[in-house]
Amino acid sequence: MEKYPNEAQSIFDDGHETGNHTYSHNRTVFKTPAFIQSEIERTDKLIRDIGYQGSIYFRPPNGKKLILLPWYLRQHNRCTVMWDIEPNSYPEINADAKKIVDYTVSHTKPGSIILLHPFGNGSRKTREAIPGIVSALQKRGYTFVIISELLAFNEK
């Protein structure tokens, strides 16, 4: 957000829900409480500085959370959002857009959270797969919602 403030502002202006994934994307396992606090609070400040007022959900880098991170999040009443589908973790799937689509669609169930990495090195196949994923899931009756809507639905 510091490097690309205009893009961050545009995401906010477009009405997207915004989450915290730490400042540096370093793992928070075996880190000090001060490191964890700084990573989260520094990012929260950047998110608030663009005008975002909603809940800031948290997703740990690499999905790793052990002892101090969960303790910090619990102490600050923070909701951790994880995923249940991540096709990019499997090199044999990640190398082919059709395989990404097939894997994602076949593993999706009501309430699933799909984690895709469509940016960065080697992510072209993921970007190519997104229209196919969306189309196939919509044909199966799925709709796409933001995290706060999914959490509210799951609380019912």
Fold and architecture overview:
The chain has helices spanning 5-13, 33-49, 68-75, 91-94, 97-107, 124-139, 147-155. Helix 5 runs parallel beside helix 6 (124-139). The chain starts with a helix and ends with a helix. By secondary structure, it is mostly helical. Helix content is 47%, strand content 0%. It contains seven helices and no strands. The mean pLDDT is 93.
Short description:
The protein is mainly alpha-helical and 156 residues long. The protein is 47% helix and 0% strand. The longest helix is centred in the first third of the chain and has 17 residues, at 33-49.
Cα-based radius of gyration, to the nearest Å: 17 Å
- Indicate the percent of residues in helices: 40-55%
Number of helices: 7
Report the structural category.
Answer: mainly alpha
User: What is the number of strand segments?
Assistant: 0
Topology as a string of helices (H) and strands (E): HHHHHHH
Share of residues in strands: under 5%
| Whole-number mean pLDDT | 93
Q: Uncertain runs with pLDDT below 50, 5 residues or more?
A: none
Terminal Cα span: 34 Å
